[in-house]
């Protein structure tokens, strides 16, 4: 009944939101700056300035004139005019009235007669022209949904998101066979390794990002991390304007999400912004179990084999985050100089261990975050240009993990007293995770088409804590690690037709801990520093105007993360300080073809192939006796993969597309360690890695629905994952399989108001209530509904 009410409320709001809005008319003329003659058939494109969304495109008539009728209000637009033999013009314009007339005078540029014209490209288009195998998604059309960033990334070709539950659950990325910590996550080029879980992919609202870039395999040195399987860079919006965005949503499982963002830039260059959001959910969705522990009145218990549908009863989650930034922009000494502060709080109940075989009813964790941030950027007029940037943050985090219940729970929510406290292990553990991250980048442009770049990324970790229930010698000795990854690259671009980059990287890792190397009680100070070299190259060639070929190679390394080395802090994931770094030879080949590239129609096809050969592969495993997780080196692994993506768009009114990925990731460790006995896992698929999956989507934009000036967006998504095993499965045991999964989502968004400032959205995810799982058979939510209300203002 509640689901029906949500749909009715949404339908009523659509009809009540009737506000009359007039269209904006943009007319103009394009001429030769010298002769003043009209330029016929010059290409004219209009995009919104705020989010770079395509609005329309056309060409001038025989008189050099063009005309656009903008259906909706756009505070600022970017107009790009290009014509072969002339320098491309790009103008940012703020329509002040219903009618505007613009003049464009183009200057001749004889060099472009024999070149591919790349001037006037948007930042997203510049990224796509790189020599690296990169996919990206613009978030403008998704900001009105209740999606978080993990949902958005999950739709990109070659990517799967593994989550352990509902709102606030841990999200791990699988990218072309590599998962978890093999794939590095960045925000504006700064690693997210040390950030609080309150600022994780499953918590960050999609509105925080302007776009998401996914690098598959070889990663540019500018991102500066030790990524082995690829990297994801979340790019925030750095436009100079005054705006306010506010939204609230509510939905199934008592889920509530709120986000407020405001920023202002004065004429004198003072900048201030505030981004605050909160998430709350009971996460009490139903899950399916095939057995449970029955508690008898005499104090005994027994395992009962029975297929049941039960509701999660101990999975509440809420977090609150606020990010304040102040500084100056567009000064002689700095393009951007910002000081930021992020504060956050998180409360999370723990329903189960790393698998659903172990259920809890009282465990919980809390976390507090205080993280100062610094951003500096400047473009100097030295030679052909010198760009310098510095980004850094330091997290003063405090966490608390509690496991004090003197009873055990089953999936029915029943409890049975036990003689000692602690469902997994008795603990009242208070600990501090102090994490730092800094990235310095410098790019010098000595001549046209040439650049030299230097990047250095520092990440630090320090954990100290105390368990009130017991003393351990390690409490007096903080566990610490420090990583420095430095890269140097040279890039050459030949007239926009071909460009190539060569780079070298140096990795340094320092580790300090107080432990027994044999895992016993003979504790001692442990310190180790290692360093490694890597490098590679990437090249791309533009075959005509519509086809881009890419080829790249890298010898890459990945250093173990602080969590793999020291554990999660709540005893569910334990550390392994003996882990070795992974190393890999990576080869990537890809092609992008604009098979149809007309004014109103565009068909884009992307195909890619990847080859990886990894040594000392780090794999996450689970303990069947306790449900705990840990990481271990698994010898040699070979990975072959391919991606295919197709997308068709018609103006800005309709799009349809899909992507498909196939991964063949197998163990090449032939013998059992220390013997000549052949391993039963030799040439078997690496477990817990989906090997065949894909996505499909379609969208329709209708304008002037019910009232002139309104916009109705309808967006459908489909997700597919082929059956795979979550443990080594040489004997094809069906109990170790995660079944094939299909899910369908539908999003409807209605935009209205005098300046299109109001938004109402309704959505239904997992429409047919399919059983969905993560890589270790942790069941995810079933069918869910949500409604979102939004307001935006910009000038």
Automatic annotation (TrEMBL):
Signal peptide boundaries: 1-23
Pfam families tied to this protein: CarbopepD_reg_2, Plug
Annotated GO CC locations: cell outer membrane
GO molecular function: siderophore uptake transmembrane transporter activity
Bilayer topology term: Multi-pass membrane protein
GO biological process terms held by the UniProt record: siderophore transmembrane transport
Domain TonB-dependent receptor plug: 128-231
Keywords: Cell outer membrane, Membrane, Receptor, Signal, Transmembrane, Transmembrane beta strand, Transport
Location within or outside the cell: Cell outer membrane
Gene3D superfamilies documented for this protein: Carboxypeptidase-like, regulatory domain, TonB-dependent receptor, beta-barrel domain, TonB-dependent receptor, plug domain
Family: Belongs to the TonB-dependent receptor family.
Designated name of the protein: TonB-dependent receptor
Species in which this protein is naturally found: Phocaeicola dorei
């Amino acid at each position: 009944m509640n689901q029906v009410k949500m749909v009715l409320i949404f339908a009523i709001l659509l009809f009540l939101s009737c506000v009359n809005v007039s269209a904006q008319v943009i007319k103009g003329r394009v001429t030769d700056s010298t002769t003043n003659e009209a330029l016929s058939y010059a290409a004219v494109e209009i995009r919104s300035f705020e989010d770079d969304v395509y609005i329309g495109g056309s060409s001038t008539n025989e008189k050099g004139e063009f005309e656009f009728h903008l259906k909706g209000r756009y505070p600022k637009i970017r107009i790009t005019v290009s014509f072969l033999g002339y320098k491309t013009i790009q103008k940012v314009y703020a329509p002040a009235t219903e009618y505007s007339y613009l003049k464009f005078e183009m200057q001749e540029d004889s060099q472009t007669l024999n070149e591919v014209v790349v001037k006037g490209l948007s930042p997203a288009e510049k990224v796509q022209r790189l020599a690296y195998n990169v996919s990206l998604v613009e978030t403008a059309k998704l900001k009105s949904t209740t999606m978080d960033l993990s949902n958005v990334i999950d739709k990109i070709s070659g990517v799967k998101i593994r989550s352990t539950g509902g709102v606030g659950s841990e999200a791990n990325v699988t990218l072309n066979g590599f998962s978890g910590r093999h794939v590095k996550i960045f925000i504006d080029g700064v690693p997210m390794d040390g950030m609080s879980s309150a600022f994780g992919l499953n918590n960050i609202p999609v509105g925080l990002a302007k776009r998401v870039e996914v690098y598959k395999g070889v990663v540019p040195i500018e991102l500066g991390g030790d990524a082995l399987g690829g990297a994801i860079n979340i790019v925030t919006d750095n436009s100079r304007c005054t705006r306010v965005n506010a939204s609230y949503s509510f939905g199934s499982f008592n889920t509530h999400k709120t986000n407020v963002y405001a920023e202002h830039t004065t004429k004198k260059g003072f900048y201030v912004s505030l981004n605050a959001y909160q998430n709350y959910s009971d996460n009490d969705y139903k899950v399916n179990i095939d057995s449970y522990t029955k508690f008898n009145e005499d104090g005994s218990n027994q395992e009962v084999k029975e297929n049941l549908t039960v509701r999660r009863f101990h999975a509440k989650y809420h977090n609150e985050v606020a990010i304040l930034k102040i500084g100056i922009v567009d000064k002689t000494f700095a393009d951007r100089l910002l000081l930021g502060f992020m504060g956050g709080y998180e409360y999370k109940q723990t329903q189960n261990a790393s698998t659903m075989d172990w259920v809890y009813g009282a465990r919980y964790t809390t976390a507090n975050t205080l993280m100062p941030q610094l951003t500096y950027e400047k473009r100097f007029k030295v030679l052909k240009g010198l760009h310098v940037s510095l980004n850094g943050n330091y997290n003063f985090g405090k966490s608390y993990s509690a496991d004090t219940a003197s009873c055990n729970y089953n999936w029915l929510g029943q409890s049975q007293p036990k003689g000692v406290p602690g469902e997994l292990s008795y603990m009242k553990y208070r600990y501090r995770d102090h994490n730092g991250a800094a990235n310095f980048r410098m790019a010098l442009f000595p001549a046209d088409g040439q650049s030299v770049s230097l990047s250095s990324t520092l990440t630090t970790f320090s954990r100290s804590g105390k368990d009130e229930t017991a003393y351990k010698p390690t409490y007096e000795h903080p566990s610490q690690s420090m990583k420095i990854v430095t890269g140097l690259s040279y890039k050459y671009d030949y007239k926009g037709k071909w460009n190539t980059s060569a780079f070298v990287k140096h990795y340094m890792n320092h580790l300090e801990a107080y432990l027994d190397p044999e895992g016993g009680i003979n504790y001692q100070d442990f310190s180790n520093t290692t360093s490694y070299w890597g490098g590679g190259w990437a090249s791309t060639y533009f075959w005509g105007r519509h086809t881009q070929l890419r080829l790249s190679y890298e010898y890459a390394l990945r250093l173990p993360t602080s969590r793999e080395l020291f554990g999660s802090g709540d005893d569910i994931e334990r550390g392994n300080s003996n882990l070795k770094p992974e190393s890999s030879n990576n080869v990537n080949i890809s092609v992008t073809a604009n098979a149809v590239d007309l004014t109103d129609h565009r068909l884009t096809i992307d195909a890619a192939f990847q080859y990886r050969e990894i040594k000392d592969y780090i794999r996450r495993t689970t303990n069947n006796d306790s449900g705990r997780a840990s990481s271990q080196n698994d010898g040699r692994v070979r990975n072959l993969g391919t991606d295919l993506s197709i997308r068709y768009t018609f103006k800005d009114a309709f799009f349809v597309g899909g992507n498909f990925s196939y991964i063949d990731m197998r163990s090449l460790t032939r013998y059992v360690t220390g013997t000549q006995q052949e391993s039963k896992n030799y040439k078997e698929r690496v477990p817990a890695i989906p090997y065949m999956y894909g996505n499909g989507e379609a969208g329709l934009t209708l304008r002037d629905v019910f009232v002139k000036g309104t916009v109705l967006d309808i967006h459908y998504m489909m997700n597919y994952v082929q059956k795979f095993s979550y443990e080594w499965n040489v004997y094809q045991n069906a109990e170790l399989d995660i079944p094939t999964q299909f899910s369908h989502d539908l999003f409807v968004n209605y935009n209205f108001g005098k300046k299109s400032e109001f938004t109402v959205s309704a959505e239904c995810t997992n429409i047919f209530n399919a059983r969905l799982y993560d890589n270790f058979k942790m069941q995810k939510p079933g069918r869910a509904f949500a409604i979102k209300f939004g307001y935006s203002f910009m000038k």
